[in-house]
Amino acid sequence: MKKATRTATAGTNAEHARLHNRRVILEAVRLAGRLTRADLTRLTSLTAQTVSNIVTELQEEGILLVHAAEKGGRGQPPVPLSINPEGGYSIGFHVEQHRIIAVLLDLLGQTQAQVRLSVSYPSFEDALPMILDTTRQFQQQLSAGRFFGVGIALPGPFNVEGMTAVGPTGLSGWDDPTIAARLNKELGVPVLIENDATAATMGERLYGVASDLHNFVHLFIGSGLGAGLYLDNRLYSGSWHNAGEIGHMTVIPNGKTCHCGNQGCLERYISIAALLEHLGHPADHDIAEWDTTSKAFQQGVEVWLDEAVPALRQAINILESVLDPQTILISGFLPEPILLRLIERLEPLSRSISSRSDREYPRIQLGTAGPDTVALGAAALMILAEISPHYETLLKSE
Ligand SMILES: [Zn+2]
Question: Which of 12, 90, 104, 187 is most deeply buried (CB count within 10 A of its CB)?
Fold first, then answer.
């Protein structure tokens, strides 16, 4: 394993180095499943003494399990170590227009509990009691283990004048920068707020089709549209956590008027709100309650795609040209048959730098992490912040 490189670590900061080394060791064990101290010394390039000290510390905290020594060979028998699933937990919330989904994850990333609450365009004040109640309810189920914190994912973009919480795809009352601090105070644990497409991208990386990918874009079609960017094996979230918020990217000059004041924004063509508008329904309808198998609905979808597909092709051409990804995933709350039809209709894609005959993956693929992917990703971000050296930076924006 390549040792992670750090930038701008001025001087010697023993505590910082210790935390970093803990994460390096935990990530190595997580990826391998089981490793011995000798394996860790070899894989991480840390000294045997450092590995030994950190392993002892993690074992005392209940984060690592120590298994029976392996027999055979000469000298001291090697002792395998693994992550203790009960060593820690995190909770992820996906707040969206019609529901709040919450999941409780253990340290191995397995779902221990899940809750779905029906809501209607919840403001932060509406959602706060539900978040507090669900967190307490989950906490009561935990017998032991550290509680790493709460990740909350919701539609972006955040804090952009004229774009945040405007129109049918926005949620109001979430753009107050003190929200994370308030939640942290109420819950007494770290709180991370992330946009839904970025959290979904982490969900796909850990639980879906992207587990082997190190450069991909994830288009998440919700009420609006966002993209998550996973570049050079890490999430890219930009200076203000708005990277990939492509919903208001102009794709059709002089096109449809948008609530943001521009014309021809991508999500005016490709989003659940755009589909509902096309079908003549208010944008606040919940598509989950629809009979998507009816002939009339399917015909309506086909006509919608006539308009949506060219706009999305344009966006795909831009994303491929700028980012040179291995693939682009598409998922979200559109029913799967519609997502599959959309992917089918996108062909032929516009030519771009991604038009290569030696491709390992198709240019466009369906995401496979399922409807909880955003909540799973939000919870996983909290755990990764603890156990992976690459995700610590995500916590520094609050
Ligand atoms: Zn717009």
Answer: 90
